Structure to design on (522 residues):
């Protein structure tokens, strides 16, 4: 049997630390459910001390997810560790992940501690954590730039104090594959009690080497890889889960290891993470990019038709991609529609079906060919736009090369019909200005992204916006055959989240929140 490599997914923790990728509890839960379906071994659900919201999300994930270990991150401080424990303890298999920096530059300038003091903190924090939880992971932050002799001492002490997983991060993505592999080999050969722990790696992608470094570490004895969906994470991100998993699968002849991951859930997990965070996946991204399985040139197409393996080293089905198929037309009934939803992986209740089915009928009236992707967009749209404090009733636009851009909207706001019109630097700006007038605030538009869901010029446009408000970012998403309407609905979707956030923060006045930016890197 090939050796098993554990997959530790940190999309909900390191991934969420990508600037602008924050997610709410419901969004984190829906990602955690797919990570469970993906069969990752460990989900790092968050950094519980960072905020009340983070704590609640970790706790909710720990209570619901049964088939993965649930980890919470903590600095080498009793308070952090206790809070992390309280967040994960309901899990069937909880883990506390505690860390401290071990590189000269981090110890001197950030921690202002010498080697002896860091060793004291390792002993104190790991043994404190081990008294609470049987499953402890310890990380030497900036391990890639730490002195190897000091690393041996730290790791030996962490294991002696109760850690059963030793994670070696290349925090700043500085090392080269052979160099990082060498660190892992040396740790394996020189730390006397290393056989009592699993060696894990956590590589950042600043030089684009996170996946290569992780695989080289596996070659040299690491048996856990920390990674994120779509390679999300601080700065240039972490090793992409889909890449390390597929590399181990496709090249098992050389790597001789395997993961437990159900690769057929990769594509939909990637799509969900992209749609929740508003981070589009680049078309040429390995494994999950839109072009990853596209064959454009004549020579390639000819080869693939003769034998698919001429240009395909893995099949799209392995990651759960189904061929886009023409689905139902405007004469299709509700039963067939329900069956189609099932095939696409959606189990929806009767009320929900009625709502989506009505939207499908409207779409089928306007659009000749309705594809699976259109149906997925309808479900997502209905899901993302559940909140209805603010709803679009009607929209009309006057726009042209030489005329002013004027929008007129009818909106339901707090159960009252509001009519508003206004101008802007283009039709979309005019629409956004109108909506801002009604809600009474003008958030900053941080990101606007539009994507055609299917081929042809009658495709639905899927719009993602990210609005900055009160030092936070709110993502809105919507699709429609009319891209101005899709833009309006996605802006409204994000405004509804702001209104919800305002309502909740008024209700929770007095609850203190430590902002993640105050806590990162301490
Ligand atoms: O990059 C890093 O060092 C981390 C640690 C907290 C594991 O994210
Ligand atoms: Zn990291």
């Amino acid at each position: 049997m090939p050796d098993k490599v554990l997959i530790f997914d940190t999309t909900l923790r390191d991934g969420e630390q990508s600037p602008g990728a924050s997610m709410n509890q419901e969004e984190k839960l829906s990602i955690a459910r797919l990570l469970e379906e993906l069969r990752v071994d460990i989900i790092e659900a968050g950094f519980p001390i960072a905020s009340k919201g983070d704590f609640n999300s970790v706790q909710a994930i720990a209570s619901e997810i049964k088939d993965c270990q649930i980890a919470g991150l903590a600095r080498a401080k009793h308070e952090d560790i206790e809070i992390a424990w309280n967040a994960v303890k309901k899990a069937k298999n909880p883990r506390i992940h505690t860390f401290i920096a071990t590189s000269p530059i981090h110890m001197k300038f950030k921690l202002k501690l010498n080697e002896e003091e860091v060793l004291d903190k390792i002993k104190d924090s790991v043994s404190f954590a081990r008294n609470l939880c049987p499953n402890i992971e310890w990380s030497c932050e900036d391990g890639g730039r730490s002195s190897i002799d000091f690393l041996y001492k730290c790791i030996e002490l962490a294991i002696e104090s109760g850690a059963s997983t030793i994670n070696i991060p290349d925090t700043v993505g500085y090392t080269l594959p052979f160099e990082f592999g060498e660190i892992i080999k040396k740790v394996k050969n020189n730390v006397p009690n290393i056989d009592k722990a699993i060696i894990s790696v956590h590589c950042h992608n600043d030089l684009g080497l996170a996946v290569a470094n992780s695989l080289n570490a596996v070659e040299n004895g690491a048996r856990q890889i920390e990674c994120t969906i779509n390679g999300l994470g601080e700065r240039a991100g972490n090793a992409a889960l889909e890449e390390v998993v597929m590399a181990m699968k496709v090249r098992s002849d050389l790597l001789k290891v395997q993961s437990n991951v159900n690769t057929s859930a990769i594509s939909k997990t990637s799509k969900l993470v992209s749609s929740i965070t508003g981070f589009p996946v680049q078309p040429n991204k390995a494994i999950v990019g839109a072009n990853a399985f596209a064959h454009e040139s004549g020579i390639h197409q000819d080869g693939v038709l003769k034998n698919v393996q001429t240009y395909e080293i893995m099949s799209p089905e392995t990651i759960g991609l189904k061929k886009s198929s023409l689905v139902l037309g405007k004469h299709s009934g509700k039963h067939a529609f329900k069956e189609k939803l099932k095939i696409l992986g959606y189990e929806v209740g009767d009320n929900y079906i009625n709502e989506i089915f009505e939207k499908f009928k409207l779409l089928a009236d306007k659009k000749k060919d309705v594809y699976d992707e259109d149906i997925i967009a309808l479900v997502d749209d209905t899901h993302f736009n559940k909140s209805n404090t603010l709803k679009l009733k009607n929209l009309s636009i006057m726009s042209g090369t030489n005329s002013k851009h004027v929008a007129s909207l009818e909106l339901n706001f707090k159960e009252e019909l509001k009519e508003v019109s206004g101008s802007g630097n283009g039709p979309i700006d005019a629409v956004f200005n109108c909506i801002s007038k009604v809600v009474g605030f003008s958030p900053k538009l941080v990101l606007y992204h539009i994507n055609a869901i299917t081929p042809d010029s009658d495709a639905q446009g899927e719009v993602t916006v990210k609005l900055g408000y009160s030092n936070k970012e709110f993502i809105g998403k919507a699709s429609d055959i009319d891209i101005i309407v899709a833009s309006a609905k996605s802006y409204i979707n994000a405004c509804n989240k702001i209104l919800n956030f305002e309502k909740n923060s008024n209700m929770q006045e007095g609850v203190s929140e430590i902002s993640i930016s105050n806590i990162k890197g301490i």
Confidence is low (pLDDT under 50) at residues 508-522. The two ends are 42 Å apart (CA to CA).
